[in-house]
Amino acid sequence: MLPVDVAISFLGIAILLGYSPGPDNVFVLMQSAMQGRRAGMLVVLGLCTGLIVHTTAIAFGLAAVFAASATAFTVLKLVGAAYLLYMAYGAFNAPADTADKPEGERLAAGSLYLRGIVMNLTNPKVVLFFLAFLPQFVSTERGPLAPQFFQLGALFILATLIAFGSIAWFAATAGQFLRKSARAQIALNRIAATVFAGLALKLAMAQR
Question: What is the DSSP string of 100-120?
């Protein structure tokens, strides 16, 4: 078991990191503003599912193998960049829809959840971050490392839910007013397309 002080320290740092500008929280912000609060939370849940995969990988040493492969890193970042460009294209061409629909109805729940998973798993920087960040909070003196990594992963997911969930909540509130105007909605879609394209470029140029 992780000591309480270590767990609290890790959770606090993870929450602060969750609010630091990055591809995942920007993605949540734009999806919430465009699709609504429920949609944003579904994306957050998808991102957290991706974190479960990353935690499992690092716990069993798979992440280190991936990080050592330049080819795997390149392929994954290009897949992620291509997906973001696809999102940018969809957002840029999305028509204005000011009809009074329930939140999240514009896209199916499964599609939104999958977006979060794909966004997280195709970002190789997450693997490298976990490799650099999590080992700082484990110790062989506490026993096997794998259970400690899983505990840290669970805390990181909790921090992500807190930070990204609040981003989704407030972004959706602002987006609710913007979606009532066709002109504002078109502008929001164009902004989202630009953001997604920028994230794609940043990811494609990422180095290990």
Answer: ---TTTTS-HHHHHHHHHHHH
Distance, in Å, from the CA atom of 151 to the CA atom of 36, rounded to the nearest integer, reads 32
- Mean pLDDT (whole number) for 64-74: 72
CA distance 130 to 188: 33
Provide the token pair at 152: 């840290």
pTM of the model: 0.78
Q: Which of 69-73, 80-84, 137-141 has the lowest mean pLDDT?
A: 69-73
Residue with tokens 């028509």: 95
User: pLDDT tens digits for 36-66?
Assistant: 889 999 999 999 999 999 999 888 887 676 6
Q: How many CA atoms lie within 13 A of 24 on its CB side?
A: 31
Contact predicate 96/182, CB 8 Å: yes
